């Protein structure tokens, strides 16, 4: 009976999976299978390209003249938006807790709260969001356009490996630039939180800073920097490999860019969880 | 063409399929030093696929491809210029960037000084009739000019093997003649082996030493341009006369 019902529905790709699956189940199964295939392909490609990058670095083939413009690009395009987002995020935290904590006599903890929130979570995450939106999407759009207009083929014919020439400088630049951006955004966030605490809860700036100084551990700073570097790697490798594997035309450039942004956000969230679990899970 | 000249391109039993459709089926071709081979055929017959396989942009499903000189280059159908670089940087690209597939015997190209690179780039741009545009970007040029820049980029390192994908398509007759002349110049001066994918009768007759007609994934006819005009092979006859009657019509109408 089920088999007869199946015959009324066109198969997703003409493949029979037997009578056991209902048509909608089969369609969902097919969709998941394709998505998983694509995901595994992308992860495999990223791992393979990472191996190539490490090999090139070990061979001394990293060209800083290609890396510095990319660092400049990541910094210039991202800094403004990263500063705004992270500063306002810190100010919101201060806004929500400073008055209440001051009323409860815990003024000396507001600085620590804002500082730890920024360093452990908000600074790296907000910087990553800005880098994905500004630099990661630009990487995918640029590389996928180069792919569909045969510029990548032209590189290969001119005996230049696109991984060394295009991807390696972007990955290295993002890994180096992200921690620097995070330091700036965390500092800006703490200053923003301090201003709000002073303004709304009359918490003196020296009390706020003393709290920051007392409660922040070097581990928090190193973790923020490490997280940022990992986020930089994740964003740059995904956005460039998705760009490099684009096929088709203008529509596919848009699709690839959207996919890269989604993949980067999801990957950053997963990486954030695992790093936080490893560093702070046992405390 | 000298048939005793060494073979620079050797393609044997090449097969390639995309999504179950066989595009090239057991193709074997040799191109000698100082020879220009034109590959012709209807659209979608696998000409560009063959070219991509020959220059390593794609991998065959079966068969072998040997290039007996590592210094090869390609002129793309739609120029494929790097749009974030100037014309000068495009043409000088292979001279300024390190090669990643240099043979073990040494670098693919000699290391040139900056003045030498500038002089060479200006010389090649002059050869294709494009003086004084070094600092312009590709999107500031017409399609024909982009094509000529692409040609200058391909020949800047004096390659021994050159692949041309529709080198004169979209060019005015004078620019076409310039490109055709330069294909012959490279052949005569450097002994370059050239493979030209083209539909243009003028390009076939002015440049080719031999013509290879592809259809249905197979070589249907191979001969000189003059023989193409008088051949009674049904494929060659239909192509030469642009007739709607013949074995290749099924794909077109």
Describe the protein's topology.
The complex is a heterodimer of chains A (about 280) and B (about 250).
Chain A: H1 2-7, H2 23-58, H3 64-103, H4 110-148, H5 151-157, H6 162-201, H7 205-215, H8 218-244, H9 250-280
Helix pairs in contact in A: 2-6, 2-8, 3-4, 3-6, 4-6, 4-7, 4-8, 4-9, 6-8, 8-9
Chain B: E1 7-18, E2 21-32, E3 36-41, H1 47-54, E4 62-67, E5 72-75, H2 87-96, H3 114-127, H4 143-155, E6 161-165, H5 173-190, E7 193-197, H6 201-207, E8 210-215, E9 218-223, H7 225-230, H8 234-241
Parallel strand pairs in B: 3-7, 3-8, 5-6, 6-7
Antiparallel strand pairs in B: 1-2, 1-4, 8-9
Bulk shape of chain B: globular
| Tertiary shape of chain A | elongated
- Biggest sheet layout of chain B: 6 strands, mixed
- Largest chain-chain contact? A-B, 17 and 25 residues
State the secondary-structure class of chain B.
Answer: alpha/beta
What series of H and E elements makes up the topology of chain B?
EEEHEEHHHEHEHEEHH
Distance between the termini of chain B: 37 Å
Strand content of chain B: 15-25%
Number of domains of chain A: 1
As a whole number of angstroms, the C-alpha radius of gyration of chain B is: 18 Å
Fraction of helical residues of chain B: 25-40%
Helix percent of chain A reads over 70%
Mean pLDDT of chain A: 88
Q: Uncertain regions of chain A: pLDDT < 50 for 5+ in a row?
A: 1-18
Oligomer description: heterodimer
Number of helices of chain B: 8
Care to give the gist of this entry?
Chain A has 283 residues and is an all-alpha fold.
Overview of this protein structure:
The complex is a heterodimer of chains A (283) and B (253). Helices cover 84% and strands 0% of the residues of chain A. Chain A is mainly α. Chain A has one domain (63-280). Chain A is elongated and about 65 Å long. Residues 1-18 of chain A have low confidence and may be disordered. By secondary structure, chain B is α/β, with parallel strands linked by helices. Chain B has helices spanning 47-54, 87-96, 114-127, 143-155, 173-190, 201-207, 225-230, 234-241; strands at 7-18, 21-32, 36-41, 62-67, 72-75, 161-165, 193-197, 210-215, 218-223. Chain B is globular and about 55 Å long. Chain B starts with 6 loop residues before the first strand and ends in a 12-residue tail after the last helix. The model of chain B has no long low-confidence stretch (mean pLDDT 86).
């Amino acid at each position: 009976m089920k088999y007869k019902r199946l015959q009324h529905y066109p198969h997703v790709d003409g493949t029979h999976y037997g009578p056991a699956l209902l048509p909608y189940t089969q369609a969902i199964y097919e969709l998941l299978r394709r998505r998983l295939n694509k995901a595994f392909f992308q992860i495999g490609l990223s791992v393979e390209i990472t191996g190539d990058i490490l090999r090139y670095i070990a061979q001394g083939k990293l060209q800083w003249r290609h890396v510095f413009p990319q660092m400049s690009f990541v910094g210039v395009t991202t800094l403004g938006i990263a500063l705004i987002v992270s500063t306002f995020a810190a100010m919101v935290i201060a806004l929500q807790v400073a008055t209440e904590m001051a009323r409860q006599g815990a003024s000396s903890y507001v600085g620590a709260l804002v500082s730890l929130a920024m360093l452990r979570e908000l600074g790296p995450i907000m910087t990553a969001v800005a880098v994905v939106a500004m630099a990661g999407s630009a990487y995918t759009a640029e590389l996928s356009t180069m792919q569909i207009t045969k510029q990548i083929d032209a590189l290969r014919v001119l005996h230049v490996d696109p991984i060394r020439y295009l991807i390696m400088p972007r990955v290295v630049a993002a890994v180096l630039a992200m921690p620097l951006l995070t330091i700036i955004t965390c500092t800006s966030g703490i200053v923003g939180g301090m201003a709000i605490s002073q303004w709304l809860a009359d918490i003196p700036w020296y009390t706020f800073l003393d709290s920051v100084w007392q409660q922040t551990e070097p581990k928090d700073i190193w973790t923020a920097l490490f997280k940022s570097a990992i986020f930089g790697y994740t964003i740059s490798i995904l956005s460039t490999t998705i760009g490099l594997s684009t096929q088709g035309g203008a529509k596919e450039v848009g699709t690839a860019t959207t996919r890269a942004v989604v993949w980067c956000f999801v990957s950053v969230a997963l990486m954030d969880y695992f790093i936080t679990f490893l560093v702070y899970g046992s405390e | 063409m000298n048939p005793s000249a060494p073979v620079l391109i050797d393609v044997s039993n090449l097969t390639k399929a995309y999504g179950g459709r066989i595009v090239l089926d057991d193709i074997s071709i040799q191109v000698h030093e100082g020879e220009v081979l034109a590959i012709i055929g209807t659209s979608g017959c696998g000409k560009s696929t063959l070219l991509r396989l020959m220059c390593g942009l794609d991998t065959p499903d079966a068969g072998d491809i040997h290039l007996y000189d590592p210094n090869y280059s390609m002129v793309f159908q739609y120029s494929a210029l790097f749009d974030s670089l100037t014309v000068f940087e495009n043409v000088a690209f292979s001279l300024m960037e390190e090669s990643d597939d240099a043979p073990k015997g040494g670098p693919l190209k000699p290391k040139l000084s900056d003045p030498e690179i500038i002089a060479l780039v200006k010389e090649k741009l002059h050869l294709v009739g494009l003086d004084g545009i070094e600092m312009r970007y590709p999107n500031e040029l017409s399609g024909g000019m982009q094509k000529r820049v692409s040609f200058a980029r391909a020949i800047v390192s004096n390659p021994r093997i050159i692949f041309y994908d529709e080198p004169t398509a979209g060019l005015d007759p004078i620019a076409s003649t310039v490109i055709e002349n330069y294909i012959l110049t490279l052949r005569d001066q450097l002994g370059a082996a050239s493979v030209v994918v083209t539909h243009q009768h003028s390009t076939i007759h002015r440049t080719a030493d031999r013509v290879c007609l592809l259809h249905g994934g197979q070589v249907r006819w191979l001969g000189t341009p003059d023989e193409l005009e008088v051949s009674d092979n049904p494929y060659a006859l239909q192509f030469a006369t642009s007739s709607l009657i013949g074995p290749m019509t099924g794909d077109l109408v």
